[in-house]
Write a structure and sequence with these properties.
The protein has about 280 residues and is of the alpha/beta class. The protein is built from eleven helices and twelve strands. This is Solute-binding protein.
Length: about 280
């Protein structure tokens, strides 16, 4: 067999080319093994992602980078193609996202509930189990009420409840929108001694309560469902279909559902898996 002799310079060049090729392959592989998930502030601020994502990475090797926004903004990120997967909690908006061709299919993943938070003294006498009646009382008393005002799933639910009061645009003089996430809205409510609609998971992980407590829960209308969707690669060809679908498949699998169910704060479970409902 003929042996090819290379000069020292040629050998160095060959090694450099090989190293460059190996680096390109390694970085390409790493890029393929990560996805962007556009999700809600509640999944992030409650600590759920910090709990389940290491489990998913261990099982799949795929790293998940989370963009946490209100649901409306998270869906907009998906529409622009700036995420591979959208994981949010506004079923009406999610179905519209799929119907308009921005998402492939919607999968239910888990649920919890909304709660009305307010000062322990409850000056509006909103305490009870009827969210619509409670908001009527808040408006009539002109009590301080902090709305997220950010097109989030929580904000969308809150607006539905206000609409059900039949009071039109009248929400009382104490009503204000912060245009912020759930944590900042709770902080504002704590500083003002105000009422606020919150998802239970973020409330349970919230520490700056300053005399606030849960005043209303248990109304069936407070049910809070979460769903996940792959961004449609026909709209955005760069979507990482295999890796994104792997994340969705894991979330709705026995392992993913068990991971969600195992997340608790002080012994209280924050989310309840219900894939396949």
């Amino acid at each position: 067999m003929m042996k090819i002799q290379l000069s020292q310079g040629a050998e160095r060049l060959t090694r450099q080319v090989l190293l460059a090729l190996l680096f390109a392959l390694a970085t390409g592989f790493a890029a393929a093994q990560s996805i962007v998930v556009s999700s809600t502030t509640s999944t992030e601020q409650s600590g759920l992602f910090g709990h389940i994502l290491p489990m998913f990475k261990k099982a799949s090797g795929i790293e998940v980078r989370v963009v946490a926004l209100g649901t409306g903004q998270a869906l907009d990120v998906g529409r622009r193609g700036d995420a591979d997967v959208v994981f949010v909690h506004d079923e009406v908006a999610e179905k519209r996202f799929v119907e308009e061709g921005f998402g492939v299919e919607r999968f239910p993943v888990m649920y919890n509930d909304f709660v009305l938070i307010g000062p322990a003294a409850d000056p509006a006498q909103a305490r009870g189990q009827d969210i619509v009646e409670a908001l009527r009382k808040v408006a009539a008393a002109n009590a301080d009420f902090v709305s997220r005002g950010d097109r989030s799933g929580t904000h969308a639910a809150e607006l539905r409840f206000w609409d059900a009061t039949g009071s039109g645009e009248t929400k009382g003089t104490g009503y204000r929108e912060c245009g912020c996430g759930m944590g900042p809205a709770l902080n504002m409510a704590a500083s003002l001694g105000a009422y606020v609609l919150a998802d239970r998971a973020t409330w349970l992980s919230f520490r700056n309560r300053e005399g606030l407590e849960v005043l209303l829960e248990g109304d069936n209308r407070l049910f809070n469902q979460y769903g996940v969707m792959l961004v449609n690669p026909e709209r955005h060809t760069h979507v990482k279909v295999a890796e994104g679908q792997a994340f969705i498949d894991w979330l709705v699998s026995e392992a993913g559902q068990a991971a969600i169910a195992s997340y608790a704060i002080e012994g209280e479970q924050l989310f309840f898996p219900n894939a396949g409902r």
